[in-house]
Amino acid sequence: MESLSSGASRIQEGSLCAQHCLNNLLQGEYFSPVELSSIAHQLDEEERMRMAEGGVTSEDYRTFLQQPSGNMDDSGFFSIQVISNALKVWGLELILFNSPEYQRLRIDPINERSFICNYKEHWFTVRKLGKQWFNLNSLLTGPELISDTYLALFLAQLQQEGYSIFVVKGDLPDCEADQLLQMIKVQQMHRPKLIGEELAQLKEQSVLKADLERVLEAADGAGILDEDEDDLQRALAISRQEIDMEDEEADLRRAIQLSMQGSPRSVSQDSPQTSSTSLSSEELRKRREAYFEKQQQQHEVDQPRQLSYACERPTTSSGGLGNSQAGDASSEEDMLRAAVTMSLETAEDNLKVERKE
């Protein structure tokens, strides 16, 4: 698709959209601004001669001479009369697409070969090359592929936006793009942008690049960047430590809960095994002591907080928690210490039973 961009669709330069429209239609550099201006001047002279037939001293004639040309202007605009006369050289004729005469023919747009569209002094071509339709608008960065099913909808949308659409009748000259696309079909991954959009995007990127360069110069190069990178690495290290501590606390809480539920044998039968259940009683005791030491340090830094959740009192043979009353104001730390003591006793009893077995 990109290889056809320069040949199939000529990008507009200045305001010569009529010239680009004709050359995109014929697929060649057939018309120059000078040639189109010559046609426009010829049309102006023909109109002047018709007006002179009513008398060169008439008010209408003097008013006509004072008015600018209706066939061209200094911006490079050319009228439909200029385009129509230019195409007559190639034996081509323009018919208004939504005229009653053409609509009565009930011709499917897909069966045509090309269209010329105009809105507010802008002209562009829609043409079939090979077996596919293309929007050859000179304001686009390249030809836009239009599917057969979308063509009628595309033209209807242009009409709703106020475009005048003309059907090009006659045999178009042979061109390389048409011959190539007779043999292959192209696929378009990205639709072309308007030239103004692409220029604005490039300008924005240029401004951002200049701003970045100024920031780097003001920051005195890599020194500031290295310092920022060190801060980032330190923040990541602290974050990893906090995550590891949270994971350790979660494992320890699960170990305490599992040991309070009964012997390791019953736990392994009723609950999935975790890394905490495979620890020995000595390792579990050390981890619990480390956990409560860390909890005590945190307790000294922060203000004490009372938990608002209700816990069910387990009943065991040791009776460690059995004498607690419902209104007891024991702190979470005291309850956990009692639970650890009880769970250690339970674990030791289970070990003794296993050794006897």
Would you write up a description of this structure?
There is one protein chain. The chain contains 13 helices and 6 strands. With 357 residues, it is α+β, with helices and mostly antiparallel strands. It has a 6-stranded antiparallel sheet, sandwiched between helices. α3 crosses α5 (80-88) and α12 packs antiparallel against α13. The protein is elongated and about 130 Å long. The protein starts with a helix and ends with a helix. Residues 260-357 are annotated as: Disordered. The active site is at residues 17, 122, 137. Residues 314-328 have a biased composition (Polar residues). Interacts with STUB1/CHIP (when monoubiquitinated). Interacts with DNA repair proteins RAD23A and RAD23B. Interacts with BECN1 (via its poly-Gln domain). Interacts with PRKN, UBR2, VCP and tubulin.
Brief summary:
The protein is an alpha+beta fold and 357 residues long.
Please supply descriptive tags for the structure shown above.
357 residues; six-stranded antiparallel beta sheet; Ataxin-3; repeat; alpha+beta; single chain
